[in-house]
Every structure is written in structure tokens, then in C-alpha cells.
Write a structure and sequence with these properties.
It contains 21 helices and 23 strands. It is of the alpha/beta class. Strand 10, helix 13 and strand 11 form a beta-alpha-beta unit. Helix 2 packs antiparallel against helix 3, helix 6 crosses helix 11 and helix 18 runs antiparallel to helix 19.
């Protein structure tokens, strides 16, 4: 396909191939072709999007161990015996497919387009395990593959050791002087010693070799010979046993060959999808959005083969009924813009993500491209006749909904004839339902784009101050060629350029100046729009910041309210707990006048505490800051928000160090005031409790041991938190099991000071009385 070549689609294929893990996927990547069927294009893109998402969210199992074993699997299915390396590789492939299958099955609902590939992947863990248990990574058969093989290798090892010991004795014993060298070597698998030729009859054995000089013969001693024969026999038996193992394993692989072959192809297809996702990450790409039919809208797109940091983003939209003619100076980037758009369409319709901020796509039915090779990103040649041949072929086979890319349409011949021919070609392509993106230098075509419905101008921006292209595409206005200014910049003498201006004619000069002014006005308008967008963005950020501050203030209010509620509930729990204690004392001594007076006093104190707490909840006037002279080291001070007083250790500036109990605190000086000025009444010491009503007695009788332990632990903790001095634990006498458990727990508890069995009036041995620290 000519368009794929001139748009350099091969370079995209190579980048995709790099991201493939399997050989089959790599081969398919090199042969990747775009689809022109709408449903297939969106299926490809949706699959790529799901693969991209899976790679972003999960550690996707690798498919890199899956080689193309289809030929080996076919041989195994027909009864052939495979080599150890082939079998081990198939085992690795089965393992990789099984892991990928499990991954996809767990996420079937998340990735409905990937899950069917998982269904085609085999789960043959048993065969996989047998292969790994019998073979080493290099394909050699393990000793554990069979009992017979393990025995043969053990005997072989023992025989080899005996051979080495015997042959070594010739190099170190009495025969050492008969040797040309006190070493032994191996010839054709037989262990031999180097004997001087004149001594060859002094050591009985078989001569296996002679040195080049004839001075040395290599003799296998007679006593080593028999051991060597035994070793050869064991090696033969070993090969036979290894063959039996490989035959059995090949049979097992042959039984699952069809399943493994289908799995290899499914895994490779899945690998190609994941490779498209990986390429999307590399290019920082985005998946196109659906946009009607036969349409493309690019926002901040960059040619995938150009450096992302230096490439100028392209913004361009066109489609059926909306054709674009790009004008502007040479080297201004017209060809790159055309190639970028064409390559984006080919990539998207091949299921690839695009290096752009956003792309909207309506699938095209064809892509035709005629791009002057002298304008290519890679150097080549072409002729006017070659261009016309390509365009003629396009006109002949053009379908409704095709995309046509024409670089320098009508160039290479007489300008008047070229412009006339270009108009006719453009109108014909429009009539056949094609979308056209073309570039031109002809002024007549700029006017044609203004006057003809369905066509519009665009220009590559040119900085009139620096005389350099900016490579930005501006929609809606034609661009001046700036040929004379460029010529002057690059060394053409001023008088030559001035003469050219005279020859250009007054009307042409005015038209050129009008285009330049229009281009400048459009640039200024774009700058103004950019500044307006920037200010709008800043205003939006300020609004968002204000909204965040309001949300934070609301959160602080809710948190403060929650804390106040918690403080109220805690105080109420304390008051209820103390009241329960007073009533408990009254129950124990209902006729004790002293106890009743004590209870009344306690209830009065509770009333005072409640009144004081109500005052604390009332709005407080703003605090006055207490400064230097009123605070002195060593004095007792009250700290705002704390009920316990502290001792002022030191203060300087805005902060002070205060000792509160065993804790040293650094607090603002403004939160301190001398304790003498503090007016709150003393509160009784009421401790927090987990239980709403603390009891001084628990009954464990008739409970199972584990239930008694649980209830007793909770009872002791609640009693300690309630501030009780002592408690009674009724466990009964029985066999003494609960009594033993109770006293063991009390003995180990850190808050129990001591315990004893109850007095006769308290229940005797059926009760234990514990006292807390």
C-alpha cells in the first residue's frame, strides 16, 4: 500500500514490535495493517484500551517464555520424540499461559475483550509439573526422572571414581618414571596415561594413540580397561533410560498438543494487544473518541517519530465535507502536518493509541497519499508524472469516506496549468465523497479554497520578525509564501530581491502584503486568546482555592462539633458512674447515717460539676493575652483547654515550657494565666469507665473455663477504670477449677495489689476478694 510507505508506517510497526514479548506477536506487528471496517476498528481500539488499563493497574503476568513451539507440538502429536530443550520450553510456555489465564479469569468483567483469549489458554499444570520435575533448564534429564535412571547414574559415578583412582595410581606410584608426563588424559572416552615409547611393554594395556613425535604412546592400562568397559555400558544404559523418559514426556505433550498450539496463538494475539498498550505508554498516547463518520479532530498531536519535547503540537480538524488546503513557506512544516494526520488515521485504524492530548475519529474507508518524496522526512526522489500516476489511481478507485493526502498538489509543471489541474482534481475528489488535506503554493488555490463550499484555508505560521517558521498550523486563513523575504535572509542580494518585487507586479505585491498582514493579525489574535485563556484559568484556580477553603472551614466546624459532643458524652458517663457508685454504697449500708451524709455530699459535688460543665459550654469572651510581668518561673499556671494546672519552667517570646505532672509541654504564652486567677471549683476525681454501671461483684459459677476467663478479664479492667478499691469474685467451691483460674489471673494482673479467699461471712473458699493498686 503506497500510503503506508510514504507515511512511514513501517517505523510505527518497528516500535510496536519492540514491545512484543512473543515471536509470533512480533511477526504480526511487522505485518500490521489498518482496518477500514468501522466495527473492527473500534473493537481493536477498545481491546487496546483494556490492555492499557490492565498494564496500568496490575502486575500483568509476562508472556515472554512463550516461544513458537507449534512445529514441535505437531511432531509430538504424531508420536515423535522431542528433545529435552524443546520439552522444557513447552513446559515454560504452558506455565506462562496458565498464569495469564488465571489473571484474566479473575478480571473477566473488567476486561471483557481480553477474557476470551484467556479461555483459549490451556491450564495443564500437571503436564507442566511433570516436565519441570523431569528436566533441567538446559533440557537434560534429571536423576529423579526415573528410579532406574537414578540407579544407573549412581553406578556410573561410582565406576568413574574407581577409574580415576586406578589411573591416578599410575601417575604417582612406581610406574611414574615410565611416563613422559605424570598426568592422565582421555582419548575417545577412554582414560589413558602417556608412556615413553621405550617403556610401552612395561605397562600392560591397549595403546589408543601416539604422539606426533612418536616418543609417547597413550596406553589404557589393563586393569582400567575393564572398568572403562563397564563405564561404557552404563553410559549406553543411561542413554536408553533418558530416551524412555523423553518418549514418555513427549507422549504427554502430544496429548495436549492441539490445546497448546491454540494457546500459543491466543497468547500471541493477547501479547500484540498488550504491546499496543505498552506503545501507548511510551508515546504518552490516548485512545481516539468516536466522532460521527469519516472525520478526525486532533488536539495537541505530535508526529510519533519526532522528538516529543521539540515537536510543535498540531491542532487540526477535517472530515467529509470539510476539506483543508494548507499554504505557507517552504520548510514551514506543511508536509509534517500532512504526514502526522495521515499517520494518526493509519495508527488509530490499526488499534494503536495516538500521541496527542485528544483525538476524535470517524473511521475512514481508505487512505490515499501522494507526498513529494523530496519533502519526505527521509530523502528520496519523484517526478510530476509519478505524482499524476498516483493521483490517477486514487481517482479511479476512490471510495466514499476516503481520506486523501496531497502534498504540493499541481506542482512540478506550468503554474497556470498546475493550478487548473489541481482545482479539477480537488473538485472531483470532493464529488466522490473523499476528505482532502492538501498543501500548495499557488495563490489561485488559496482563492479557490475561500470561494468553494466544503474547502477552507489553513496556514503554517511564519514569524515576520525573525523570518523563521514556527511550525504552528493556523486554521481559517491562507499563508503567505514569504519567498522574497526568505531569499533575502539566505543571502540573495537586496537589489536582486527588489528587482523581483518590481517584476512581481503591483497587484501581486499587494496581495502578498495582504496575506502577510492577515497572518500577523491572526497571530496577534491567537496571542490575545491565549492570554484570555490564561486569565480564565487563573480565575478558575482562584475559585477552586476559595471553594477548598470554605470546605476546610466547614470540616473544622464539623470536627469541633464532634469533639464537643464527645466531651459532653464523656462528662455524662463520669457523672453517671459516680452516681452509680454512691447508690451502691447506700445499698450496702441503708441505715448508716454517716454513709448517707457522705452520699449527700457526693451528690452535691456532682451537681456542682454539672453546673460548672454547663458554664464551660457557654460562649466565652475573648481571652486577654497575659504578658511578661504577670508570669514568673516556678509559679503555678492554668493552661487554656486543659483541666490540670502546671508549673511554669521558663518562657521567652511567644512560647513557654510548662511541667504538667510528668510531662513537659511547650505552649503559647497567650494560653497561660496564673492559677490564682483561675475561678473554677474543684471537681471530684471521677475516672472514666468502659462500663456504664460498675459492679463490685461478679459470679462465675456454672461458666465454662474459657467463658469465665473472658468475663473475669473484662470485669477486672472495668473495675480498675471505675476506680474501685476491691471486688468480690464468686466462683463457687466445686472441684476448685474456677477458683484456680481466678487466682492465677489475679496473680498475673498488673493492677491487682493482692487477693485472698473470702472470710466465712463473705462466702469462704467459694469467693476470692481482690484489692487493686
Amino acid at each position: 500500500m503506497h500510503a503506508l510507505r510514504v507515511l512511514e508506517f513501517d517505523s510505527v510497526r518497528l516500535r510496536l514490535r519492540f514491545h512484543c514479548e512473543t515471536p509470533l506477536a512480533a511477526a504480526w506487528a511487522e505485518a500490521l495493517m489498518p482496518s477500514f471496517e468501522e466495527a473492527e476498528v473500534w473493537r481493536l481500539l477498545d481491546a487496546t484500551t483494556q490492555g492499557h488499563d490492565a498494564l496500568a493497574r496490575y502486575q500483568v503476568p509476562s508472556l515472554g517464555l512463550i516461544r513458537d513451539w507449534r512445529s514441535a507440538l505437531k511432531r509430538a502429536s504424531k508420536g515423535a520424540v522431542l528433545g529435552g530443550a524443546e520439552l522444557f520450553g513447552i513446559g515454560e510456555a504452558l506455565g506462562a499461559m496458565r498464569q495469564m489465564r488465571a489473571f484474566l479469569m479473575q478480571r473477566r468483567t473488567d476486561y471483557p475483550l481480553l477474557a476470551p483469549y484467556g479461555d483459549s489458554l490451556p491450564d495443564q499444570q500437571r503436564v507442566e509439573s511433570q516436565l519441570f520435575e523431569s528436566l533441567e533448564g538446559d533440557g537434560s534429564v534429571k536423576d529423579s526422572a526415573s528410579v532406574a535412571l537414578a540407579g544407573i547414574r549412581q553406578r556410573k559415578k561410582s565406576t568413574l571414581t574407581r577409574i580415576q583412582e586406578r589411573i591416578q595410581s599410575y601417575t604417582t606410584g612406581r610406574t611414574r618414571d615410565l611416563l613422559s608426563d605424570p598426568i592422565y588424559t582421555v582419548r575417545d572416552g577412554r582414560y589413558v596415561i602417556p608412556v615413553k615409547s621405550e617403556n610401552r611393554g612395561k605397562i600392560r594395556g591397549i595403546v589408543h594413540d601416539t604422539s606426533a613425535s612418536g616418543q609417547t604412546v597413550y596406553v589404557e592400562p589393563e586393569d582400567v580397561l575393564q572398568l572403562g568397559n563397564t563405564l561404557r555400558e552404563l553410559e549406553s544404559n543411561e542413554r536408553i533410560e533418558e530416551l524412555k523418559v523423553l518418549t514418555a514426556l513427549s507422549g504427554k505433550v502430544g496429548a495436549v498438543a492441539d490445546e497448546a498450539t491454540g494457546g500459543t496463538e491466543a497468547a500471541s494475539q493477547l501479547d500484540l494487544i498488550l504491546a499496543r498498550g505498552r506503545l501507548g505508554f511510551e508515546m504518552k498516547g490516548t485512545a481516539p473518541l468516536r466522532q460521527g463518520t469519516h472525520w478526525i479532530d486532533i488536539r495537541s498531536g505530535r508526529h510519533p517519530m519526532l522528538d516529543r519535547e521539540s515537536a510543535i503540537p498540531l491542532n487540526l480538524a477535517l472530515g467529509k465535507g470539510s476539506n483543508v488546503l494548507i499554504t505557507g513557506p517552504n520548510t514551514g512544516g506543511k508536509t509534517v502536518a500532512i504526514k502526522t494526520l495521515g499517520l494518526f488515521v493509519l495508527m488509530a485504524q490499526s488499534g494503536l493509541m495516538l500521541p496527542a492530548l485528544e483525538v476524535k475519529l470517524g473511521v475512514f474507508t481508505q487512505v490515499w497519499a501522494d507526498i513529494g518524496d523530496e519533502q519526505s522526512l527521509e530523502q528520496s526522489l519523484s517526478t510530476f508524472s509519478g505524482h499524476i500516476k498516483n493521483i490517477g489511481e486514487a481517482l479511479k478507485f476512490l471510495k466514499d469516506g476516503a481520506l486523501v493526502l496531497l502534498d504540493e498538489i499541481g506542482a512540478g509543471t506550468d503554474p497556470a496549468e498546475g493550478a487548473a489541474l489541481a482545482k479539477a482534481i480537488l473538485l472531483r475528489m470532493q464529488a466522490k465523497g473523499a476528505t482532502v488535506l492538501a498543501s500548495t503554493h499557488y495563490g489561485e488555490l488559496k482563492a479557490f479554497a475561500y470561494q468553494t463550499p466544503g474547502f477552507s484555508n489553513a496556514a503554517m505560521e511564519f514569524d515576520s520578525k525573525t523570518f523563521k517558521p514556527t511550525y504552528r498550523l493556523l486554521m481559517g486563513a491562507p499563508g503567505a509564501s514569504h519567498a522574497l523575504r526568505i531569499a533575502e535572509r539566505y543571502g540573495i542580494a537586496k537589489e536582486v530581491v527588489d528587482e523581483a518585487r518590481v517584476n512581481l507586479g503591483q497587484q501581486a505585491q499587494e496581495l502578498s502584503e495582504m496575506f502577510e498582514k492577515l497572518e500577523l493579525s491572526q497571530r496577534q489574535a491567537r496571542i490575545a486568546q491565549s492570554e484570555a485563556d490564561r486569565r480564565t484559568s487563573e480565575l478558575k484556580k482562584a475559585e477552586e482555592k476559595a471553594a477548598r477553603k470554605l470546605a476546610e472551614a466547614d470540616e473544622i466546624r464539623r470536627t469541633a462539633s464532634s469533639r464537643a459532643t464527645e466531651a459532653i458524652e464523656a462528662a455524662l458517663r463520669e457523672i453517671r458512674l459516680e452516681a452509680a457508685r454512691l447508690f451502691e454504697e447506700l445499698k450496702k449500708a441503708p441505715h448508716d447515717t454517716k454513709a448517707m451524709d457522705q452520699a449527700r455530699k457526693g451528690l452535691k459535688e456532682l451537681q456542682e460539676v454539672g453546673g460548672e460543665f454547663a458554664k464551660d459550654l457557654a460562649p466565652k469572651p475573648a481571652r486577654r493575652t497575659v504578658v511578661g510581668p504577670k508570669l514568673e518561673k516556678g509559679m503555678t499556671v492554668r493552661i487554656a483547654h486543659y483541666t490540670q494546672n502546671g508549673t511554669l519552667l521558663e518562657f521567652s517570646g511567644k512560647n513557654a515550657t510548662v511541667q504538667v505532672g510528668s510531662l513537659k509541654m511547650t505552649v503559647p504564652v497567650s494560653d497561660l494565666e496564673p492559677a490564682a486567677k483561675a475561678t473554677p471549683k474543684a471537681r471530684p476525681s471521677i475516672q472514666l469507665a468502659k462500663a456504664m454501671t460498675a459492679s463490685t461483684e461478679i459470679h462465675l459459677r456454672h461458666l465454662r473455663a474459657e467463658d469465665a476467663i473472658r468475663d473475669l478479664d473484662r470485669f477486672i479492667d472495668d473495675s480498675v477504670l471505675a476506680g474501685l478499691h476491691s471486688v468480690r469474685i464468686v466462683h463457687g467451691k466445686g472441684e476448685g477449677v474456677l477458683r484456680k483460674i481466678t487466682q492465677e489471673i489475679l496473680r498475673k494482673h498488673p493492677h491487682v495489689a493482692n487477693f485472698r479467699s473470702g472470710d466465712p461471712g463473705e462466702g469462704g473458699d467459694g469467693v476470692t476478694v481482690a484489692t487493686f493498686r
